[in-house]
């Protein structure tokens, strides 16, 4: 924190999101259940609370998913049907 005259403080903001590592890795296969579909039509699943987006998946589907890309806040998966 940085002190300022006038009695208020300004805090430095860190990076967006958490500093934890993603619980998934590229090219690994997971079993998921699609919880919902986002506005772009991608199925939304979670692995240990981490969001995984699967294009073309529908709510309620149980799928084997291969992770193709991992980003800081979500991963992209490919359904293995």
Report on the structure:
The structure is a single chain. Strand 7 (62-70) and strand 8 (74-80) form a beta hairpin. The chain has a 6-stranded mixed beta sheet with strand order 3-7-8-6-5-4, with no helix packed on it. It has one domain (22-80): OB fold (Dihydrolipoamide Acetyltransferase, E2P), CATH 2.40.50.140. With 81 residues, the protein is mainly beta. Helix content is 0%, strand content 48%. It is built from no helices and 8 strands.
Summarize this, please?
Helix content is 0%, strand content 48%. With 81 residues, the chain is mainly β.
- Which regions have little confidence, pLDDT < 50, spanning 5+ residues? none
Helix content estimate: under 10%
Assigned CATH class? Mainly Beta
| Inertia-based shape | elongated
> What is the terminal separation in angstroms?
51 Å
CATH superfamily: Nucleic acid-binding proteins
Which structural class do the helices and strands define?
Answer: mainly beta
Order of H and E elements: EEEEEEEE
Number of helices: 0
Query: How many beta-strand runs?
Result: 8
Portion of residues in beta strands equals over 45%
Output the strand order for the largest sheet: 3-7-8-6-5-4
Mean residue pLDDT: 87
Query: Biggest β-sheet, characterized?
Result: 6 strands, mixed
Number of domains: 1
Radius of gyration, CA atoms, in whole angstroms: 18 Å
Task: Using the coordinates shown, work out and report the CATH topology.
Answer: OB fold (Dihydrolipoamide Acetyltransferase, E2P)
| CATH architecture label | Beta Barrel
Structural key phrases:
OB fold (Dihydrolipoamide Acetyltransferase, E2P), two-stranded antiparallel ribbon, elongated, 6-stranded mixed sheet, mainly beta, 48% strand, 0% helix, 8 strands, single chain, 81 residues
């Amino acid at each position: 924190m940085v002190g300022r005259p006038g009695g208020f403080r300004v805090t430095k903001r860190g990076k967006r999101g958490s500093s934890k590592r993603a619980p998934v890795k590229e090219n690994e296969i997971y079993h998921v259940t699609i919880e919902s579909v986002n506005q772009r039509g991608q199925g939304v699943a979670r692995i240990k609370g981490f969001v995984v987006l699967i294009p073309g998946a529908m709510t309620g589907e149980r799928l084997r998913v291969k992770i193709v890309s991992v980003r800081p806040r979500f991963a992209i998966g490919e359904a293995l049907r």
